[in-house]
Amino acid sequence: MSWSKRDQYIIAVIAFLIPFGIRLLPYLIVLLGLSWLFTGGIKRTVEYFLYSKKRNRILLFLPILFYFFHLLSLLVTENLRIGAFDIQVKLSFILIPLFFTGMPEDSIDLDKVLNSFLAGTIIASILCYFIATWNSLGLDSGRIIFNVHPDVYFWENFFLYDRFSAFHHPSYFAMFILFAIGTGFYYLQSDKNNIFGNRFIVISIFFLSLTLFLLSSRAGFLVWLVLIVTFGLIHIHKRASESYKLAFPFVILLGFFSFLIINGNRYNTVIEDLKVYKNYAQENTQSSTGTRMVLWEESVRIIKRNFFFGVGQGDIKMELFRQAKKQGYLQIIEKNLNIHNQFLETFIGLGIGGIILLVLMLFWPILRLRGKYLKLFVYFIIIVSLNLIFESMFNRLAGVFFFTFFYCLLTLVMNQQLSSRLEK
Question: How far apart are CA 222 and CA 278, in angstroms?
Fold first, then answer.
């Protein structure tokens, strides 16, 4: 088997394994690195960035530049140990672009990678149901009983939130499920290479939406609604002959899950928190929504004092805790909270240059690239951007790797296709 085909299979396996956790992924990245080292990948990478005529190669250089900004931030940070650990977590920002640009041109079959990710997400979701069912089973006087509530933490539920999400934190698993749903929307176009069939895709979207609801991620609910609306705006109005076929299942989906969300405790809690937010005292800011809003307010104060250069990646929490102590929000320190907003966290750590780079990395490719994968890339950016508002997704390897893996794949393939059309 040629190395290019081996790279393709490794990438497909990585995409399949992302929903199952990250323990195996470093070993597969090492395989990609060995291929890059010993099969001419270094030369191809240098040629891609320095000598090729591809118009948008700067887009794949942005993650590398973003990583170097984090390296430079160590010069101003006081806590080098935390800063060095953060640099390790974010290694994917530099490794993935280097490895992918070092592969032979047109050797990546992106549809196969997307098929693999969709299959992996569905199987991981099914396993979550099996694990939750297994945890709910027990014996009492020789009889099998089914109890969804843990014995000690009886207010929790094996089929909800972190008890249900067996492989990742619910926020990260919800993000993966949302991209799988976005991939399903992409495959519903008749001209795409879909090995599953449209009927299976529609059923999968319903199933994954139900799984998303059980994960109880409020950011996931919001992104799901935006995806449904975006799908309608992009596709349904362009396909008059198929509009009724496409619209019917999604109108039902939108109505059903909107009803569940509006009547769910998580949604109602947010509404109540927002109503009473201005009356929060320092000692009673206990809800996650109220705490987030306090975190964001204090983050803005830190940004104003460190606008240009930031405080350094290693000092973000230290500066946040110092500000929280000054304002009397001691529960932020006691719970060891982060900012829960990647945009604010990047601004605090890297300053104005870092936040500009992050915004460019997210939105510039939408303006520069064209091709059949552009709509899928729009879904991807919507999913990632909205999640970055509510979580510091780049603080964990799962978030960093997921973003860089699909960002680089989609950008690289679309740029190759665009360059090929222009050369013709």
Answer: 23
Q: Please compute the mean of the pLDDT values over residues 97-102 and round it to a whole number.
A: 94
Let me know: does 345 contact 392? Beta carbons within 8 Å: yes
Spatial CB neighbours of 351, under 8 Å, sequence gap ≥ 6: 306, 307, 308, 309, 310
Question: Residue 279's closest CA among 290, 267, 266, 295?
Answer: 290
Three-state DSSP state, 139: strand
**Helix H or strand E encompassing 386:** helix 374-390
HEC string of 300-367 equals HHHHHHCCCCCCCHHHHHHHHHHHHHHHCCHHHHHCCCCCCCHHHHHHHHHCHHHHHHHHHHHHHHHH
At 334, list the tokens: 């006691």
Contact between 267 and 312 under an 8 Å Cβ cutoff? The reply is no
Q: Kindly give the interhelix angle for 3-17 and 110-136, rounded to the nearest 10 degrees.
A: 30
Rounded CA-CA distance 384/403 in Å is 7
Q: Which 3 state secondary structure label does DSSP give 159? A: coil
Give the number of other CB atoms < 10 A from CB of residue 424. Answer: 5
Angle in degrees, CA 272, 273, 279, rounded to 5: 110
Beta strands (DSSP E) in 117-259 are 137-140, 143-146
Rounded to the nearest 10 degrees, the angle between the axes of helix 58-73 and helix 397-423 is 150
| Nearest of 47, 48, 44, 22 to residue 35 by alpha carbon | 44
Sorted by where each begins, the domain ranges of the chain are 3-107+352-423, 119-269
pTM above 0.85, yes or no: yes
Is the pLDDT at 246 greater than 80? The verdict is no
Burial class (CB in 10 A: 0-12, 13-18, 19+), 195: exposed
What's the Cα-to-Cα distance from 289 to each of 94, 140, 272, 278, 295, rounded to whole Å? Answer: 34, 40, 10, 12, 10
User: How far apart, in whole angstroms, are the C-alpha atoms of residue 132 and residue 134?
Assistant: 5
The whole-number average pLDDT for the span 211-216 is: 91
Separation between Cα atoms, residue 14 and residue 33, nearest integer Å? 14
